[in-house]
Design a protein that fits this description.
4 helices, flat, 64% helix, mainly alpha
Length: 81
């Protein structure tokens, strides 16, 4: 009985240190990247507010709409076959 308890305890402790699985959906990945960006920015600048960090990271993740509109269909960077 003690052997089973010891094995169970060891497996629980080893399982607790396992790295988390990467998020499966694109929305979860984007959210995680936003959180990491905000954490880096707020860590580097203690005077930066949460909202300012979020705004800056969102702007960096999504280019401005006028920049997207200026790229024509032939200039998209995709190779023509």
């Amino acid at each position: 009985m003690k052997r089973f308890l010891a094995i169970g305890l060891c497996s629980a402790l080893l399982g607790a240190n396992a790295p988390a699985a990467p998020p499966a959906s694109q929305a979860a990945i984007v959210k995680r990247q936003l959180q990491e960006c905000m954490a880096r920015r707020m860590g580097a600048n203690k005077m930066l507010s949460y909202n300012d960090a979020k705004r800056t990271c969102k702007e960096r993740a999504q280019p401005a709409k006028d920049a997207l509109a200026s790229i024509g269909p032939n200039e998209s960077g995709a190779k023509a076959h």
